[in-house]
Amino acid sequence: MKTTSLALFVLTTVTQALAAATGTPSDADRALACASPWTAVPLLRGYNGAWRDHFYTTSLDEMNNAVKNIGFTAEGTAAYVFLGTTGSDGTIPFYRLFNGPHTDHFYTTTAAEVSSASRLGYDYEGIAGYIYQNANCGGVPLYRLSSGSSIDHFYTTSASERDNAIRNLGYTDEGISGYVLPV
User: Which residues form the DUF5648 domain (predicted)?
Assistant: First the structure.
């Protein structure tokens, strides 16, 4: 399964690179169209205190399983994201990875980070959803933080929650992953 998922990721990345190399217009070259907010779905957030791991998914069944069988606590909807993309709707993939030995879920929008994280022991788990690449479509920042001491990546749209995690919980600000629709 891991090899198949990584192979699919590599195939997708190569296909995108070939399209760019052959002169196919990039999103920046096209008139910006925004994914319709009416098609957005909840990005659910869970937390496992024993693992010190934040988990995000668009699947209610997956979240319910994580709560019932893996020890996560459901924390509600973190934001709204998209399940698919047209390629010209202003969205980019929000890749999901997991490092079992460190029990850390990691999410990124860049193929280079997926490759780098894979070399560090993270397994590619697919695309968690699609998020806006910039604020042009009315999204709000999805802040990314990490805790080196607990090896946890944490994502939030709340600047005050971000600031509290930095000041009081030992997290480091890693910038903005992308833009999402707020709760």
Answer: 42-181
Q: Which of 92, 72, 67 is nearest to 82 (CA)?
A: 92
Question: Which residues are within 8 A (CB) of 98 and not within 5 positions of it... i.e. 6 or more apart?
Answer: 104, 105, 106, 122, 123, 125
β-pairing, 91-99 vs 73-81, is unpaired
Q: Which residue, among 101, 145, 144, has the nearest Cα to 123 in the 3D structure?
A: 101
Alpha helices in 93-183 (DSSP H): 111-119, 159-168
Residue located via tokens 């029990």: 103
Q: How far apart are CA 35 and CA 98, in angstroms?
A: 28
Closest CA to 181 of 96, 108, 86, 78: 78
Give the model's confidence band at 32: pLDDT under 50 very low, under 70 low, under 90 confident, else very high: low
Write out the E strands in 49-100: 53-57, 73-81, 91-99
pLDDT, tens only, 144-157: 999 988 899 999 99
pLDDT in tens, 117-129: 999 999 999 999 9
Most confident among 3-17, 78-92, 104-118 (mean pLDDT): 104-118
Under 8 Å between Cβ of 34 and 89: yes
